[in-house]
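Title: Request for sanity check on N-acetyltransferase prediction

Description:
We are preparing a figure and want to confirm that the structure record we downloaded matches what your pipeline produces today. Could someone re-run it with the sequence below and paste the raw structure tokens into this thread? We only need the token string, no images.
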Amino acid sequence: MKCRHAKDSDLDKVCDLLAKEFCHDPIYKVLFSGRDDRVNILRDYFRIYVNIEIYRKGTLLSENDTDVLVYIRPEFIAEIVETHAQADEELRKVCGSSYKAASELINGLDRLHPLNPPHYFISLQAVQRSARGGEVVESLFRTLHDIIDKDKLPCYAECTRFSTRTLIRRWGYRDADFPLHIRGFPDLYPVWRDPKQLSMK
């Protein structure tokens, strides 16, 4: 199974996939609690940030559009807080009555994010339920790891489910720290992968 970096024309399909798969995620169920239009809100919510990473060539999409992985390159990690500040007005419009909670979540994650050593950051990853258990996820992680191992840099991610934290270990990730706690939200589970030494040919 092949994958590629998403283009501007892929933005709608990427946000649609993320919205549908994160609709029942524990974090976003709390964030948009009681909202009947949660999928539509999430579609616009993710669009704010995915649009930036597609431009930066930081969004991997499977060839059959069933799986997506959004990552942030090391040179942009230091700009996360600034990026979120610039998107604040758009976030306010999208979230409506959930804006305060969204702001607390984003600010909390920014505050807890490690800045050193330099690293890649997986910000989002989703796979269609019907495609789970196949080669799709393996292909995306393999592609990402080829990039980060070539740069000899680690990778960081925050899992919203304990089961995801357990599953991601098969790709070389380990617990990065204790679970992250942001007031009003379920704990997140930070994980870390050290780069693998590439063989010399």
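Thanks, this matches our download. The chain has one domain: 3-193.
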